Amino acid sequence: MSYTALYRKWRPTSFQQVKGQDHIVQTLQNQIVSGRIGHAYLFCGTRGTGKTSIAKIFARAVNCEHPVDASPCNQCEICKGIAAGRSMNVVEIDAASNNGVENIREIRDQVQYPPTEGKYRVYIIDEVHMLSTGAFNALLKTLEEPPSYVIFILATTEANKIPVTVLSRCQRYDFRRISQETLTARLKELAAEEQILAEDKALAYIAKAADGSMRDALSLLDQCVAFYFDTLLTYGHVLEVLGAVDSAVFSQMLRAILSQQTTECIRKLESLVYQGRDLGQFVTDFIWYLRNLLILKTAEDAEDMLDMSEDNLRQLREETDMVDKETLMRFIRVFSELSGQLRYAGQKRVLVEVALIKLTKPQMEHNLDSLIQRMDELERRMDEGMPAPIRPDLLQRLENLDEGDKSLYEANLKDAEKGAGKVEVAIPKAQLEDLNLIRQDWGKIVRDLGTSIRPAFRETVVEPSGDGCLCVVFSSQANYAIGSRSTVLGALEAYVKERYGKEIYFKVRLRDNGERMNTIYVSDEELKAIHMEITVED
Q1: Alpha-carbon torsion 201, 343, 261, 458, what sign?
Q2: Does the global pTM surpass 0.70?
Q3: In sequence order, what DSSP letters do the residues of 210-274 get, joined into one string?
Q4: Over the stretch 268-295, which tens digit does the pLDDT of each residue have?
Q5: How large is the angle between the packed helices 200-210 and 180-193, nearest 10 degrees?
Q6: How many alpha carbons lie under 13 Å from residue 359 in its C-beta half-sphere?
């Protein structure tokens, strides 16, 4: 006997076996029990979510001689005949190859005759969006007023292509993507039934790769089992068969990108190509990795939203401190654009390499988010005391930006170029400790305050203003108006208290014209030690 694929062998035969579509199953069962059966149904949803399977179960259920909980018994002659394809009462049509007016006219002629057995004649039209305009028009009248014994079930993956006149005549049911947890549980059941030895992690990755499709999940499992027949199916085996990449590689790639190590990124990509990994799958999985990182950085209780091990979560938490939200969104944008290009590209590797170079060299792009990333890098280097060379051509590239962003950059440029004429001022040691604590992390504090107020704080300077108080000095009137709000200062004080455990009061002032903000603050004890009198003995 020839081998039957898993997705065909384990196709649901009753409503109880359908997974992930409880809202639809319950509604159809209630209609059968109450006798309120419609004449036209439209099943919409992505591939492999159970549209055709539920249509066939429904066709048997409405004709079954001995239904059980509104499900077909699959034992009576009518159920057996429909399941075997011998029944004249259930007709399944592929609209992709039978999409002409003559095909619909044939159906219209057939519906005049009542069923030879059972109660209903059921017409299942799959991929109904492929019908021509003339075929839809020919179907309208029959669809609106069919005989009492006729049921139409239309199935499609693209409901937007169906005319409104057809939609209004049908009960529409939207099939959801099946969750990864449901797919994994089903794969475990079938693996046990088929006596397939597989790691839970391997089945979980297959479920993730299926992207909500039960049929895809079973096909991928079939493929992996065929390659590693009669052996334990491991996570590494699945990655090898599907051409996928382990999550550790994404972490290494991200850290290389953040460190702007272009050569290292290209070498890692070359290693993946050498291993035969699918570049399209790599890009898709890397986008998903960045998405998880962005959610963990922005959402509360994000751990509950991420389906991953504690080790992977710990690794993601470490990386949240390495990158800000704007940079992550830029990475996702670049790779999302790349994902669309790879579908029809002949030189996929070259496109992926160009994308990696873009991420490590933000100066290659002349848009706002890449500029923000470069300014963040300059701020980080200045905070750490590293040299931050300023290129003259950067100001020319700001011509397309608004005046606020341009003045912001020019102010930072001027502040970076200042270095002479510094004045030393002595303050109490406790005030100096608070000042240094905030100043050394000021760039990070501003970034964490949020995108709504972050631009206003970019060109600010923090200075002492008495015991337990610091003053934020603004360079522009517009930014001062934002920063002087009580809600903004309250959020700043709450952040400092939560992160550093210090009660520091903040106030603001506007920078005077011509005022230089290069004062060096030292403690009064240090200043005395520096300027102490030197006695020369004879």
Answers
A1: negative
A2: no
A3: HTT-HHHHHHHHHHHHHHTTTS-B-HHHHHHHHT---HHHHHHHHHHHHTT-HHHHHHHHHHHHH
A4: 889 888 887 888 888 888 898 888 888 8
A5: 130
A6: 33
